[in-house]
């Protein structure tokens, strides 16, 4: 005779197995850590610098702007910027980084550098467990600081160096023009106004004209650099790292 207890036993084992599986899934879900994202923001302005010598404001060159944007993304996630960030005080010893032998390489793979909604805002994001929220903030702030120092500030310093060189060259040309003009005036006085009609006089005047054209070119270049230095920076930080839900 068939044993009626066997089907019930099979169903009981199946039910127990299902219960245990569901319990394991719920337990795994329950103990899974919550994840958060630390985000810092920079503005990358679309508008070009307008020079005083321009007859009309220049139109936005979209290809130039895209080049600027992609270049900043690459620089921000570059080895030398992230290496600089990892050297900031307190960063190397953060608990979040202890199990990452090569923190720079890990950051290059996990740091998100993007333009949300294709806007002028450059976002630096790092995701991790909520328990490490303070570490994530410190790391993202360190990356933002390194980017400011190694890229934004260095570009500003380069413009300052260019301005100093242009100013020194301009002063040298001004002195040379003054000297040559005085020589021509003295020769003109000695020749009772006849030096201008001589080969020597014409050559001297041509030298002065060439120097005057160089002076004008350098003056325009210096004007452009001065405006760039005094205008609001095209790239500037607008938000330090803050935590938000993943």
Give a verbal description of the structure.
With 246 residues, the protein is α+β, with helices and mostly antiparallel strands. It folds into two domains: 34-154 and 234-245; 159-229. 60% of the residues lie in helices and 13% in strands. Helix 3 packs across helix 4. The two termini are 61 Å apart. 11% of the residues are buried.
Give the topology:
Elements: H1 5-31, E1 35-44, H2 62-76, H3 79-86, H4 103-110, E2 112-114, E3 121-129, H5 133-190, H6 199-230, E4 235-245
Antiparallel strand pairs: 1-3, 1-4, 2-3
Helix pairs in contact: 3-4, 3-5, 5-6
Q: How would you summarize this macromolecular structure in one to three sentences?
A:
This protein has six helices and four strands, in the order H-E-H-H-H-E-E-H-H-E. The protein is α+β, with helices and mostly antiparallel strands.
List keywords for this structure.
alpha+beta, rod-shaped, 246 residues, 6 helices, 2 domains, 4-stranded antiparallel β-sheet
The number of distinct β-strands equals 4
| Terminus-to-terminus distance | 61 Å
Major sheet details: 4 strands, antiparallel
The percent range for helix content is 55-70%
**What count of helical segments does DSSP give?**
6
> Strand pairing plus helix content: what structural class?
alpha+beta
Spatial strand arrangement across the major sheet: 2-3-1-4
Strand content: 5-15%
Give the uncertain stretches in residue-range form: none
Mean pLDDT: 82
What is the H-and-E element order? HEHHHEEHHE
When the domains are counted, the total is: 2
Shape: rod-shaped
Radius of gyration: 34 Å
